[in-house]
């Protein structure tokens, strides 16, 4: 078939898009270290000069163990730091942690025999590498691997390399832990010698932390054998020095009070805005979508005009949150630093390879409010590391027991959904004043941006990004308090403020709405855009089937908005079928009225099939409706419809996936496995796409 002009345009756009996607903008030369640009807050890596040669770097800094991480949400990075600490404190290894994108791998065939490399690699989405591991992954899983020295895969070029591997995955996704599995097999094929098993943590089963803890002990034993290491009693050695600078005022312009980068602090932030450099965007509109009192779902419009940020329908926006004041206060109280919360602190890596994860100098208050994930579930290893600094013997004994007894820890801490400060409060009312702040920086993650599926169409509103977010407020069985999601409750508070709500702080969480140095006043929020592969067909006359219950409808509102606009312009738009589900038609039916307007523009080509789980005697979900409409679905697939799922990864996406396999098999008179196979085939050819979380 001949390509027409539109096809060519689309092809070129796709090519440019994928180059941009896979290089993650590295051709735009964005500084990777946001603090390095000002020179005010150089971290260890920046100070020591940035070589990309890991062999040279280890030689220079006298290390014999490098722990590479491929991390998206910070967990893999956290595990890497913990392994580094343990390796150094328990086994006397000279460890360093390394972001996998900061080093080259073409010379790993020169990796010395008496050293070891760890790979702690998360799998993201559909078996993909994390953003920072894309190039590494492509190199090792590519067809023709060639090292700088000229060695190729036939030469067993990595035969001198020892490595350790742990993967972070989620078994509800099809390609479970694909990243670590593929990298492990590639390294083995190249002759490298794996020490211990390649570990796999499963977020889907909720056992990530325990999988990690269970994996690492036999790994350390195997590594000790392989490298002749002697275990010794671990004593805490700080990774960072934290010094209070009494002479410097927090108002001093060099102090970070929550700004994400030096340029933000200096008031000269400019693009390109990215995951390392967020745009402080105005929220131009915000409203509630639910009609019930006790649950909230926010619709927000974020203005990106003039920022040079752009998005395409189906992309994600990341929101950089602020911790709730109530939790910041609790944390500062528990660690006995409330009185000096506004003291300026300077944080430095004691070792040149230690990267300071938060901007410095800063204050205790700003560190806890803007830079540290203080509300997350607590890890057993971290709790046990606090035992040495307990305020009294009884609390110390309790922390030791919690650290050693997995079941006890689950009963007392995990099941109660405590964050770290709540966990310590449950042990004693005494403050933990002896805990070094360095240990808190090491033990807790950096505060992570949260992603949202953009719920608008870039064709209709290229400068305004819509977000549809349900406010997390859940009481898990076993917990006596509500767990309040960090970002969504912050967004709720912003919405209340924007709308002049009489109770601007519905839950007494006391957010710093106006941000560092009031820079977020007038309702701003830091954001960046992440491009995704979740895309409408380029030909709008192609039919589409979308399954998006709850906030899973977010990207589909964008899809429908786009197709309605095309229809209004007179373009031929194919059948646009949405399966939507929620509890009740008059409570949480998102965009109900808006969909009526689209219906007017699109006529019969828009079909919305609903499943209300709490209206009838029996619970009905989208997968049931899908089966009831098997023939329609099958007919559309025969007309080459794209099939999309968005929303809950744990249950819904899996159920819908199975239902689709059944429908295909049954409608075409094929055996069940054939149906499943066809869904797999659709997935690999791009006509079945998931955006699930
Ligand atoms: P968090 O603070 O991150 O908490 C989330 C959950 O973790 C809590 O509800 C609770 O179950 C658990 N938790 C937190 N702290 C504890 C604790 N101490 N103990 C025990 N459990 C705890 N969401 C949307 O609403 N709309 C979207 O369009 C959307 N799109 C997404 C797209 C992608 C690609 C991804 C990855 C996610 C998407 N999400 C979306 C989810 C969103 O990113 C956030 O995860 C969600 O809003 C919760 O964020 P939060 O900061 O409010 O909650």
List keywords for this structure.
693 residues, alpha/beta, seven-stranded mixed beta sheet, six-stranded antiparallel beta sheet, 22 helices, globular, binds flavin-adenine dinucleotide
Q: Could you provide a short overview of the structure?
A:
The chain is an alpha/beta fold. Helices cover 34% and strands 17% of the residues. Helix 19 packs parallel to helix 21 and helix 21 crosses helix 22.
Structure write-up:
By secondary structure, the protein is of the alpha/beta class. The chain has 22 helices and 23 strands. The strands form five sheets. Strands 1, 2, 3, 4, 5, 6 and 7 form a seven-stranded mixed beta sheet that branches. Strands 14-11-18-9-10-15 form a six-stranded antiparallel beta sheet. Strand 16 (473-474) and strand 17 form a beta hairpin. Helix 12 (393-404) packs across helix 13 (406-414) and helix 19 (622-628) runs parallel beside helix 21 (652-667). The model is unreliable at 1-14 and 16-48 (pLDDT under 50). Bound molecules: flavin-adenine dinucleotide. The site of flavin-adenine dinucleotide has 24 residues, from strand 14, strand 15 and helix 16. Residues 316, 321, 375-377, 417, 419, 450-453, 468-470, 472, 474, 483, 485-488, 551, 554, 693 line the site of flavin-adenine dinucleotide (FAD).
- First-residue to last-residue Cα separation: 38 Å
Shape: globular
Share in β-strands: 15-25%
Number of helices: 22
**Structural class per helix/strand content?**
alpha/beta
* Computed Rg: 26 Å
What ligand species are in this complex? Answer: flavin-adenine dinucleotide
Please outline the major beta sheet.
7 strands, mixed
């Amino acid at each position: 078939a001949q390509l027409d002009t539109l096809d060519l345009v689309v092809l070129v756009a796709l090519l440019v898009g994928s180059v941009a996607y896979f290089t993650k903008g590295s051709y735009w030369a964005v500084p990777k270290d946001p603090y390095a640009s000002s020179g005010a807050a150089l971290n260890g890596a920046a100070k020591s000069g940035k070589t990309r040669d890991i062999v040279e770097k280890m030689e220079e800094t006298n290390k014999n163990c490098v722990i590479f991480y491929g991390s998206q949400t910070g967990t893999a990075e956290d595990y890497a730091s913990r392994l580094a600490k343990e390796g150094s404190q328990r086994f006397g290894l000279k460890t360093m942690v390394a972001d996998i994108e900061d080093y080259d791998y073409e010379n790993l065939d020169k990796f010395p025999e008496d050293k070891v490399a760890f790979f702690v690699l998360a799998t993201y989405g559909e078996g993909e590498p994390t953003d920072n591991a894309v190039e590494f992954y492509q190199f090792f899983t590519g067809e023709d691997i060639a090292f700088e020295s000229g060695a190729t895969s036939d030469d067993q070029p990595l035969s001198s390399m020892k490595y350790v591997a742990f993967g972070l995955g989620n078994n509800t996704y099809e390609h479970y832990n694909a990243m670590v599995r593929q990298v492990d097999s590639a390294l083995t094929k190249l002759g490298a010698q794996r020490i211990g098993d390649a570990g796999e943590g499963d977020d889907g089963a909720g056992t990530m932390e325990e999988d990690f803890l269970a994996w690492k002990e036999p790994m350390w034993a195997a590594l000790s054998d392989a490298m002749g290491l002697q275990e010794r009693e671990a004593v805490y050695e700080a990774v960072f020095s934290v010094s209070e600078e009494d002479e410097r005022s927090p108002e001093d312009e060099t102090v970070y009070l929550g700004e994400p980068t030096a340029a933000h602090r200096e008031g000269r932030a400019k693009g390109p805005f990215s995951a390392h450099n967020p745009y402080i965007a105005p929220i131009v509109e915000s409203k509630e979508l639910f009609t019930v009192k006790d649950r909230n779902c926010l619709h927000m419009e974020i203005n990106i005009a003039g920022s040079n940020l752009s998005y395409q329908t189906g992309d994600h926006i990341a929101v950089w949150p602020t911790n709730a004041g109530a939790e910041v206060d609790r944390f500062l109280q528990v660690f006995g630093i409330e009185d000096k919360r506004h003291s300026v602190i300077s944080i430095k890596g004691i070792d040149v390879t230690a990267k300071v994860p938060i901007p410095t100098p800063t204050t205790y208050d700003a560190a806890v409010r803007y830079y540290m994930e203080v509300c997350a579930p607590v890890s057993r290893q971290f709790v046990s590391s606090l035992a040495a600094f307990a305020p009294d013997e009884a609390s110390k004994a309790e922390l030791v027991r919690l650290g050693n007894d997995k079941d006890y820890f689950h009963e007392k801490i995990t099941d109660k959904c405590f964050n770290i400060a709540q966990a310590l409060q449950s042990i004693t009312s005494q403050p933990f004043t002896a805990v070094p702040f360095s240990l808190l920086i090491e033990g807790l993650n950096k505060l992570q941006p949260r992603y949202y599926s953009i719920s608008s169409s870039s064709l209709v509103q290229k400068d305004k990004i819509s977000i549809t977010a349900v406010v997390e407020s859940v009481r898990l069985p076993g917990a006596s308090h509500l767990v309040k999601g960090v970002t969504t409750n912050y967004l709720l508070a912003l919405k209340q403020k924007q709308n002049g709500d009489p109770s601007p702080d519905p839950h007494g969480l006391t957010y710093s709405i106006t941000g560092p140095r009031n820079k977020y006043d007038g309702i701003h929020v830091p954001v960046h855009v992440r491009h995704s592969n979740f895309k409408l067909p380029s030909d709008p006359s192609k039919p589409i089937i979308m399954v998006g219950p709850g906030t899973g409808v977010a990207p589909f509102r964008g899809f429908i908005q786009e197709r309605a606009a095309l229809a209004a312009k007179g373009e031929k738009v194919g059948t646009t079928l949405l399966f939507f589900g929620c509890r009740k038609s008059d409570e949480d039916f998102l965009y109900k009225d808006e969909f009526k307007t689209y219906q007017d523009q699109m006529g019969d080509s828009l079909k919305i099939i609903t499943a209300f789980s709490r209206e009838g005697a029996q619970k009905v979900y989208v997968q049931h409706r899908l089966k009831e409409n098997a023939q329609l679905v099958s007919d559309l697939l025969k007309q080459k419809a794209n099939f999309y799922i968005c929303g809950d990864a744990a249950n819904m996406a899996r159920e819908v996936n199975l239902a689709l396999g059944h429908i295909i098999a049954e409608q075409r008179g094929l055996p069940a496995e054939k149906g499943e196979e066809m869904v797999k085939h659709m997935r690999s050819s791009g006509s079945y796409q998931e955006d699930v979380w």
